[in-house]
Design brief:
5 helices, mainly alpha, 0% strand, elongated
C-alpha cells in the first residue's frame, strides 16, 4: 500500500543518505507525482531494516574526525569506542596495551590521509 502525501516525511528531517535514496527512487519511478513520492518514501522507510556490512574501526574514525590526539587521549577514547562499536556483538576481550599501541600506530599513519 502506498502512503499518502500527509504521510511523507519532510525533506529536512531525512538524513543525507535518505535524501539521496529518496531522490533516486522518485526519479526512477515511471509516473512522477504523488505515486512516485509514496514509492520513494516506502523505499527510504525500508533502509532501517537493512544490516549494513561496513564497519569503521575506531582508529580510522578517529583519524578522519580528530587528528592530533596524543596516545593517552587516544587510549581512553579507543576503549570506549570499541565497546560502543561492538555493543551486542561478539568481541572476545578488552584490548590490551599492545592492541591499543597498534591501533594508535594505524591512527597516526591514517591521519595524513584525512589531512
Amino acid at each position: 500500500m502506498l502512503r499518502t502525501s500527509s504521510r511523507l516525511r519532510p525533506w529536512h528531517q531525512m538524513s543525507a543518505r535518505e535524501q539521496i535514496v529518496w531522490a533516486a527512487a522518485y526519479a526512477a519511478h515511471p509516473q512522477p507525482g504523488l505515486q512516485a513520492a509514496a514509492a520513494a518514501e516506502q523505499i527510504v522507510s525500508s533502509l532501517g531494516s537493512v544490516e549494513w556490512p561496513e564497519r569503521e574501526e575506531p582508529e580510522y574514525r578517529a583519524a578522519r574526525l580528530r587528528p592530533g590526539l596524543s596516545l593517552d587521549e587516544f587510549r581512553g577514547w579507543y576503549v570506549v569506542e570499541l565497546k560502543m562499536l561492538y555493543s551486542g556483538k561478539p568481541r572476545t576481550s578488552t584490548p590490551n596495551e599492545a592492541d591499543i599501541a597498534e591501533a594508535y600506530k594505524i591512527y597516526a599513519m591514517c591521519c595524513s590521509d584525512f589531512y
